[in-house]
Design brief:
This protein is of the alpha+beta class. It has helices spanning about 1-5, 15-40, 90-155, 160-195, 205-225, 335-340, 380-395, 400-405; strands at about 45-60, 65-70, 75-80, 85, 225-230, 235, 245, 255-270, 280-285, 295-300, 325-335, 350-355. It has a 6-stranded antiparallel β-barrel with strand order 1-8-11-10-9-12. It has a 4-stranded antiparallel sheet with strand order 5-4-2-7, with no helix packed on it.
């Protein structure tokens, strides 16, 4: 018995102490984590599946042509309205000159229509005089015949003389009818000409407006050989080369508006229940590290998962099926001042933490129509204004000295293509 007790290993108090400390540390850690999760961790939803996004404006020409100059390259900053690419303008210039000549000729032809009104009115007055003269002559001859009729019965005049007077009356009646026909013809000519001119000025005449539309079309085509930047931004993905023949709508380069960027954070579907519009978010970009924290807030939640809008969506109703946790893009708006101080680039990774304590916001934007445009540019309006000014100049130059002082600027058509 004593030998067995002697063979037992002696107890190690240090080992017991270490195990006790370890157990207490694990319990303390578990309690601390539970307290942190209950008081702090539950307030936040986090994801590292988030990326910077921005408006990428694709630059495409509105007309076909051959590239003769490239004014911007990748990484260049451009202002709205600054030319990016110039196309050969020879064909467009010839087409504009033809349209300008056609408009000038049309204005002069329409002026001729208005001048014909006065000419035809003068002809009508002349025909009226002829009708009155023929009617007076007819009345005189008829009175002469009436006087001769009793003399014929008494034999004072011969029948030959009486028949000659009667023949003159018949000829006078024919002359009256001829004059009346000429009068009616002149009136119909005036009516037909007035149909083409009444109720409208020379500048607003349909023929002039049609020719003016061709001038606008040719003028815009000439203006569009210069491809401008529609917005401020940085050039990216330039693919156009000198001498290249480009078609209308062909992509040449892109302008990236890095002044207004946002973050698309792809949260798991299990996190969406506590995400609402307006909740504040803290973001950290890998490019700057934790030394720079961006402040933002949720601007909207996507209407569907990324898989639903994929080019080839998943076909979960076929074959074997394994559930895959889906993610929904959540748009987070950033502080423009912070973005200006610490510029971001499209596609950069972000770590996002959203404070979900405030649950008063909506999970989807309210169903209402946007009242103002999301984005707009006035670059192309300048081309329209220049086209209208060119049309007005040509019309005024061909209205003549008497009409030019009263000419109104040509009005643009009610609808444009």
């Amino acid at each position: 018995m004593s030998d067995i007790q002697a063979s037992k290993p002696e107890s190690n108090p240090k080992r017991k102490k270490a195990l006790t400390v370890l157990t207490l540390a694990v319990l303390a850690g578990g309690i601390g984590y539970s307290v942190y999760e209950a008081m702090v961790g539950r307030r936040y939803e986090q994801t590292d599946n988030a990326y910077v996004n921005a408006n990428v404006v694709q630059i495409t020409p509105l007309v076909a042509g051959t590239v003769r100059a490239i004014h911007a390259d990748d990484t260049d900053f451009v202002r709205a309205g600054q030319p990016l690419v110039s196309l050969d303008a020879a064909d467009a210039r010839v087409a504009l000159e033809q349209a300008q000549s056609q408009l000038a000729q049309t204005v002069r032809e329409v002026r001729g229509l208005y001048a014909n009104n006065s000419t035809l009115q003068a002809q009508i007055r002349a025909r009226d005089s002829e009708v009155r003269r023929a009617e007076v002559q007819l009345a005189t001859l008829q009175a002469d015949v009436a006087r001769r009729a009793p003399l014929l019965a008494t034999g004072a005049i011969g029948r030959e003389e009486y028949e000659h007077a009667t023949a003159q009356v018949a000829s006078a009646k024919s002359a009256v009818q001829t004059a009346q026909s000429a009068q009616l013809t002149a009136q119909e000519q005036l009516n037909a000409n007035q149909v083409l001119t009444e109720g409208v000025s020379v500048e607003q005449h349909p023929n002039v407006q049609r020719a003016a539309a061709r001038v606008r079309e040719a003028f815009l085509a000439l203006q569009r050989v210069e491809v401008p930047a529609p917005v401020d931004g940085w050039i990216a993905r330039r693919s156009v080369q000198l001498g290249q023949r480009v078609a209308a709508g062909a992509p040449l380069m892109s302008v990236v508006g890095l002044q207004q960027v946002w973050v698309d954070a792809n949260f798991k579907e299990g996190q969406l229940a506590r995400l609402h519009i307006g909740q504040p978010a803290t973001l950290v970009a890998d490019v700057y590290g934790k030394k720079v924290e961006f402040k933002g807030q949720i601007a909207g939640l996507g209407a569907g998962t990324g898989a639903a809008f994929a080019l080839l969506p998943a076909q979960n109703a076929t074959g074997n099926w394994i559930k895959v946790v889906q993610r929904v893009p959540v748009r987070i708006a950033l502080d423009a001042k912070q973005v200006a101080e610490h510029p971001l680039r499209v596609g950069l990774s972000m770590n996002v933490s959203v404070d979900v304590q405030d649950q008063s916001g909506k999970s989807l934007a309210e169903a209402q129509t946007r009242q103002a445009p999301l984005a707009q540019t006035s670059v192309f309006e300048r081309q329209d204004q220049a086209a209208d000014a060119e049309v007005a100049r040509i019309i005024k130059a061909n209205l003549g000295s008497k009409v030019a002082g009263k000419a109104a600027v040509a009005v643009k058509p009610a609808a444009k293509a």
